[in-house]
Specification:
The protein is an alpha+beta fold and 140 residues long. The chain is 46% helix and 18% strand. It has two helices and three strands. It has a three-stranded antiparallel β-sheet with strand order 1-2-3, covered by helices on one side. Strand 2 and strand 3 form a beta hairpin. The protein is globular. The protein starts with a helix and ends with a helix.
Length: 140
């Protein structure tokens, strides 16, 4: 019995930890949304999550080379918009352009990378909730 209770406590702790991390992430993400000037292209913070994805050019997002500058490339935050009714279903939209990646101050570049990672973290929760809701349909 103690083993089952311990597993339940661990699971509860993990879920609570994720929810706290998500809450904190969203606050910092919103601060970066304004600090990086994304608000000039996207009217509201909530509208940011209507994009299919957000990518980065000019800097690596791979875990083994995170934040590494790609020489000769331009640092830019790109959003992928999806329109199921359009002839061309998806298109890239520049949310922010910062010039040559090697010329951008390191601390600012790190904030750009952080923004994209934090966006993806929150977007993964939104996706999880979406599919969880879809699975509920099978219980009917």
């Amino acid at each position: 019995m103690s083993s089952a209770l311990d597993r339940l406590k661990n699971l509860t702790s993990k879920i609570s930890s994720y929810e706290m991390a998500r809450k904190e992430n969203k606050i910092i993400l919103q601060e970066l949304f304004f600090e990086l000037g994304i608000d000039k292209k996207v009217q509201s913070f909530e509208e940011l999550f209507e994009f299919k994805a957000i990518n980065l050019s000019g800097v690596s997002l791979q875990s083994e080379s995170l934040g590494e500058v790609r020489e000769g490339k331009y640092l830019q935050i790109l959003a992928i918009a999806y329109d199921k009714d359009a002839t061309i279903k998806s298109k890239n939209i520049s949310l922010a352009y910062f010039g040559k990646a090697q010329n951008v101050e390191s601390s600012f570049k790190d904030k750009v990378v952080e923004f994209v990672i934090r966006y993806r973290f929150e977007k993964s929760f939104i996706t999880l909730e979406h599919y969880h809701g879809m699975l509920e349909e099978f219980k009917k």
